[in-house]
Amino acid sequence: MPLTRRAVLAGLAAGVPLVGGPARAATGGWPARPIRCVVPYPPGGPTDILARVVMQRVGQRLGQPIVIENRAGASGVIGSAEVARAPADGQTFLANASIQVIIPHLNRQMPFDTLAAFAPVTNFARVPLMLVVTPDLPVRDVAGLIALLREGARPISYGSSGIGAAPHLAGELFKQMTGTEMTHVPYRGSGPAIQDLMAGNIQLMFDSMPSSAAAVREGQIRALAVTTAERIPAFPDLPTIAEAGVPGYEIATWYGLWAPAGTPAAILGRMQQSVAEAMALPALQATLETLGAVPVADAPEDFARFARSEYDRWGRLVRDAGIEAQ
Asked: Would you state the pLDDT for residue 2?
């Protein structure tokens, strides 16, 4: 059963033990120097935004800065492979979206085994996607978009952060459930895709909220709906796609933190505990709510089980949609 936003926040606020001297001693004095967190996409996308917001607070809890490094390419594979090859000493982590468990179903020549090459630390956020369109598209709601697509009077392209990413799958699911057609245009991250959407080079996106929210508020793009089963506090007047005319439509993405396989359990535990402490801070909760994200800080073993179940679930969707890597 998925956690509700209220349940997650209640759990975070219930009290998290401080990470202090005893915990530092248990990890052999780690961390003694700045930590590197690889984001396998360009700056400006949702993974980058969320990682920077969360890891800044986590670094404060650990007493060492966490430096975000963007290593874009191949739908996150290049950056992920760099982390998989890194020493398992607690100095390198990977922040990635749910595509981490989707891309293996698309790429048969992966340079690593997704479930074996990484040690799960925690799922740190769950985020709805937002259906957004370029301002010059003559639609104001989901019903209008479906009608426009069925007319077929003009070509419609939708962008995504990469082949097999949740925004791509959201578009394919929308096509399946509405019986419509549109052309998928993959980018190397949400940031470049949003820029093209604002420029009118593509017509719509199912984008993760952190990278779209500001542009929506500034009127640079127009939001039609959210992809979750319920409306979200950040945009309470925005309907869900299900209530706007596509019953049963629901999809979201999540963001996790991994380390190279073999990283000591004590370090994984301390990192997860520091994430949980950060997530319990009202200021960070407020920031994440503004971005449309629900904070999460599950234990490494729970995240491992969740990642495995998501690996299986997304794999079925990829096969059903007939999606292949290009």
From this structure: 41
Q: Which two tokens stand for residue 113?
A: 């085994």
Side-chain-side CA neighbours of 225 within 13 Å: the count stands at: 26
Measured distance CA(223)–CA(215) in Å, rounded: 10
As a whole number, mean pLDDT of residues 264-284 equals: 97
Residue 133: CB partners within 8 Å, gap ≥ 6? 139, 145, 197, 203, 204, 221, 222, 224
- Give bridge partners of residue 37 from the DSSP assignment: 68, 93
What is the model's pTM?
0.79
- Separate counts of helices (H) and strands (E) for the chain: 11, 10
pLDDT of residue 156: 96
List 128's β-bridge partners, or say none.
Answer: 252
pLDDT, residue 163, reads: 85
Please give the C-alpha separations between residue 24 and each of 89, 159, 260, 267, in angstroms, as whole numbers. Answer: 14, 45, 20, 9
